[in-house]
Design brief:
Layout: H1 2-14, E1 15-16, E2 26-31, H2 39-42, E3 52-57, H3 74-91, E4 94-99, H4 101-117, E5 123-127, H5 135-141, H6 150-160, H7 165-168, H8 171-188, E6 205-211, E7 229-234, H9 244-260
Parallel strand pairs: 2-3, 2-4, 4-5, 5-6, 6-7
Antiparallel strand pairs: 1-3
Helix pairs in contact: 1-3, 3-4, 6-8
């Protein structure tokens, strides 16, 4: 019983699930962007039908995990998600959705699940993220994040959009946001994926979404699966997915893909 309680606490800590659907046919596990929490993507639980339950991953150092230290590297992030979710992922089909930083974390988790447990999502949805072996990703990896001033990071966060302006007026929130963003990029820089070393990692279909005004290096995602890869460009910038019309397109399209994945 003690172990059950500990497991429940770990789940509650890591997962935001605003709409529990224990009888759902499939779980959609969502991974948020750098500096982000679970607020927006967890709400997707209300937009899907009863066949899909939405889990949103809460990374350490934010929201209810505010007092915890940030993850040191991608490996520790991947290990936490895998160890807490493994039982759930074994019991029914699952798909991953990640936006920006979240697309790399979801890819890293999927890679680990495949290599270590032979488990694979039925579909990988990536949004606003470069392919992890592309020039675009290598540029992020080589950016000197520790040398960049807080003001520059703040200016960058503002140009990306997606953050309510009233939050940026509060100095404590601003500082925390910059710190979280910085730590997430640091984690990202510890992740390396070499395509040449291995066979094609996945056999599931991959769908790439991005905003029409966002410069993202997406084409190479198709080299990562023997399944189909589709590309959708929706109107807007990096945070195109927060627009209600785009959110509606995404949730409908994801539903269709999951239901077609022969559940």
């Amino acid at each position: 019983c003690f172990f059950g309680l500990v497991f429940f606490q770990e789940m509650e800590k890591l997962i935001a699930c605003v709409h529990k659907r224990p009888d759902a046919l499939c779980r959609l596990v969502c991974f948020s962007w750098a500096g982000g929490g679970t607020l927006q993507l967890a709400q997707w639980g209300k937009l899907f039908n009863n066949s899909i339950e939405v889990f949103c991953i809460r990374f350490p150092g934010r929201e209810t995990r505010f007092t915890e230290p940030f993850a040191k590297d991608m490996t520790s992030m991947v290990n936490e998600v895998t160890s807490v979710l493994l039982k759930e992922l074994k019991e029914k089909p699952f798909a991953f959705f990640g936006h920006s930083f979240g697309s790399y974390v979801s890819f890293a988790v999927a890679l680990h699940l495949k290599e270590k447990y032979g488990l694979e999502p039925i579909h990988l949805f990536v949004s606003g993220g470069h392919a992890p072996h592309s020039e675009g990703f290598l540029a992020i990896k080589s950016s000197p994040i520790s040398d960049i001033k807080d003001e520059e990071i703040l200016a960058y966060i503002k140009t990306l959009g997606g953050t309510p302006p009233e939050l940026l007026h509060n100095e404590d929130i601003r500082k925390q946001m910059v710190l979280t963003f910085r730590e997430d990029i640091r984690v990202l820089q510890t992740f390396s994926f070499e395509m040449a070393e291995m066979d094609i990692p996945f056999s599931c279909d991959i769908t790439c979404f991005n905003g029409s005004d966002d410069k993202v290096d997406v084409q190479a995602w198709q080299e990562l699966t023997s399944g189909d890869t589709s590309f959708y460009e929706l109107p807007g910038g990096h945070f195109y997915l927060l627009e209600p019309s785009n959110e509606s397109f995404l949730t409908k399209h994801i539903t269709r893909c999951i239901e077609n994945a022969s559940l």
